[in-house]
Amino acid sequence: MASYLYKRILYFIPTLVVISLLAFVISVNAPGDPVERLLTSAESGDIANRPTQAQAEDRIYWTHRLGLDLPVFYFSISPLSYPDTLFKIIDKGERNALKSLISESGNWKSIERYHQMLQKLYASHDELPIKSLMLIYDRNELREAINKSQFNTLSLLSSSRAPIIRLRINELASLYSDYPFFKTQQSLLNKTSVAYEQVLVSEQIWKNYLPRFQFYPKNQYHRWIFGDGNWLTGKGSTHSKGLIRGDLGMSYINKMPVNTVIADRIGWSLFFTLASVIIAYLISIPIGIRAATKHGSLFDRTTSVILFMLHSMPSFWVATLLLIFFANTDLLHLFPASGVKPVVGYPASAGFFSKAKLSLPYLILPIIAYTYGSLAFISRLTRVAMLEVLNLDYIRTARAKGLLESSVIYKHGFRNALLPLITIFANILPVAIGGSVILETIFSIPGMGLETYQAIQTQNYPMIVGVFTITGILTLTGYLIADLLYAAADPRISYLKN
Length: 498
Fold this sequence. Notes:
By secondary structure, the protein is an all-alpha fold.
C-alpha cells in the first residue's frame, strides 16, 4: 500500500503543475487591471481630475507587491524589435500601445525616445502654477484646458497611424498657442513631434520577423509558485510565500489573503455538503436496497415515481418554496428566512452546544434543499447496483447454503454494490470548496458558493483562481480516497498489493 500511495502522489505532481499553469494563465489574461481594483479613488479638490503623486506612488507600490513589474514566465519568444524591458511599463494600455508602434516601425530606440518625450510632456502639467492661474482665468475654463491637454497627450499613444497622431499634435499645438502658460508644454510638444517623425523615418520592419529568446529566472509564475523569498525555504519572503506554502494571493476587494477568506468560508460549505450527503445516503441506500429486493413491487414503483418527481424539481425553486411556506410571516413562520445564526450573533458565554442550538433553526431549510435532489440519484444507483449483484452466481450459492436473507443482502450483496456509491462520495471534497452558489445565495449562507459568486461579480480573480486551484487539488485527493475505499470494500481489487 505504501508503494501504491507513493506512486499516486508522484502522479499528482505533473497534474498539479498543469493545474497551476492553467490557474496562472487565467489570472494573467483576466480582463481589467488588478492595480486599478486595489487602488481606492480618493476624492480630491484638485482642479484637474487626474492622478495625484500619492496615487502614482500607490500604483508603483501595488504593482511591485503583486509582482506585475516582473516578466510573465521563465522564457519568452518575441520579435527582435521588442525590448527585454517592456514588461516594466506598468500601465497595460500604454504597454499595448507601444507594442502597436513597434509592429509598425520596428525601431525600439526611436520609439523609446518618443515615449520618453511623451512622459515628460504629460508630467509637465503637474508643474503648472494652478493657484496663480486661477486668479487670472476662469476656473472651469482652466480645468477644461488642462484636462484636454492631458487627454490629448495620452491619446498620442492610443494610435499608431501617422495621420491621426499628426492631427492630434496639431490640435495640441493650437491649444497651447491659445494659452501663454503652456509655453513649456509647447516646447516639449515640438520635441515630441520631432521624435515621432524620427520614428517614421527610421523604420526597421525586418526586426519584427526575427525571433528572439529571452530567459528570466525571476518572473511572475516563479513568484506565484515559490514566493518572493528563497524558493526552497521561503526565507526572506516579503509579499508572497508562494502557492506551495499555501499562499493563494490577495483578494482585490478586501485586500485579505485568499487562503484566509477561504478558511473563513469553507466551514459552512463543508458542513452543508457533508450533512446533505450523509442524510441522502442514510435515506437513499435503504430505499434502493429494498427497491432492488422487491423489484417490480408496489414499493419499487411508488418510490421511483416520488423520487423522480423530487429529482426533476430545480433546487432554486424548491428553496424558494420552502422560504415561502415555512419562513413567511403570512403563512408558517417556523424557520428563519436567511443566515446561519441570529442577527445579533451568539452570546459571549455560549458554548458549542448552545451555539448549535441557536443555529439549528437556520439550518433545517437549507439542508432540505441541499438533500432532496440527491435522493433519487443515489437510490436509483443503489437499486441498479444491487440488482446486478443479486443476479450473480455467488448470491444464489449463498442462498442455497441457507444463509439468512439479511446476511445475503447486506454482507454479500451490498458490499459488492458499494463501488458506485464510493465514487459519488469521493466528490464531496471538490464540491465543498465550490459550495452551492444558488442555495447559498438564496439562504444567505456565508459559504464558498456565495463567495465565489461575489468574486465573479466583482471580477476578484485571485479568489476565483484560488477556488479553481484548491478544487483541482481536492479532486485529486478525492480520487485517491476513492481508490483506497474501493480496496477496502472489495477484496478482489488487489492493485494496492502490487
